Recover the amino acids of this structure.
DNA sequence: TTATACGTTCAGTCAAGACTGAACGTACTA
DNA sequence: TAGTACGTTCAGTCTTGACTGAACGTATAA
């Protein structure tokens, strides 16, 4: 229940890195996400490099990735030169889009095989159609989850102002 | 529409390999699956090694993997020493189980972080709960797809006996 | 002007894990 | 018994891509 909070947080950040790695994203992207989930942000560019002990190059690459996915957003502070990053209000469904994209490509690939394969491959056509429909079902379902999730999270949370990130001493 | 069927098939097999690689499975597993989708099977152990130009070690490893996932099944022929493999009747939903498992583990990881993190991390707890529910939603939805798919494919296909695999000359 | 503080890019390093060849164990065959 | 035909396992190689350090371009500050 209590234990060492820092350790808990470090474990969480590290494990979320492993999770995103299994999802085909760089581990560091997951670790940045982890920090954001715990502290919300904003974090400065330098903060991220120091807290995660990673190079500025990695911060640049991975924040841009997460930004393009819609998971975090870049902000600036008047009179400051550094970029700041904070987690977006509904950050998870954009992650799903990656899955959907991959499945769409897979389905299209199957579709073009169906088009190209001569008709005499009867059973093959049956199985290809099966595979095609499988992807179709997956895609539909994914899209429904996203819809459902977005509706839910928009209902329950009105955007709140965030404090600058700082661990409790 | 017509073109070179062999080329179409080779492309399909190769691309399915890339798809499974993106899903976190070895490329060879996908190529084996691809062959099975086109020709159905059964393929002998040696067939697979020769047709895909891969080592027997890879055949062993990857057939065992696909077998454990429930995508293919190993059969034997009376009087033959070789193992044969054919695609199972409803081979795709077992693949989904891998996704579900990963998400379950992710959710559990978030859960234990919630348990361990002191209460004073108020906003962190909110966001962790959000993440937890996200995974929960995903898991539920995935399971529904699997159910739906299994019901559908069981409805439309009664298992048929297969011919031994052989490309048309 | 020069100096400094950024963020980005790119060539190179490193690590993870897919894949292979070789050695092995087992079970048939003669 | 020896010989052969398997499937599996394991140490080593190789490939892919994450990650880094260094160089760069830009903007601010003095």
């Amino acid at each position: 229940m209590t234990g060492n909070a820092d350790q808990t947080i470090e474990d969480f950040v590290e494990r979320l890195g492993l999770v995103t790695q299994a999802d085909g994203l760089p581990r560091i992207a997951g670790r940045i996400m982890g920090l954001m989930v715990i502290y919300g942000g904003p974090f400065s560019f330098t903060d991220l490099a120091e807290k995660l002990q990673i190079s500025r190059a990695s911060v640049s690459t991975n924040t841009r990735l997460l930004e393009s996915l819609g998971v975090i957003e870049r902000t600036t502070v008047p009179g400051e030169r550094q970029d700041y990053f904070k987690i977006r209000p509904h950050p998870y469904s954009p992650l799903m889009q990656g899955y959907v994209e991959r499945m769409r490509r897979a389905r299209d690939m199957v579709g073009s095989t169906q088009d190209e394969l001569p008709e005499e491959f009867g059973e093959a056509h049956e199985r290809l159609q099966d595979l095609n429909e499988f992807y179709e079902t997956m895609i539909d379902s994914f899209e429904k989850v996203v819809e459902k999730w977005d509706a839910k999270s928009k209902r329950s949370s009105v955007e709140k102002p965030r404090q600058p990130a700082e661990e409790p001493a």
About this structure: Residues 21, 26-28, 54-58, 61, 81 of chain B lie near DNA strand C (CB under 10 Å from a C1').
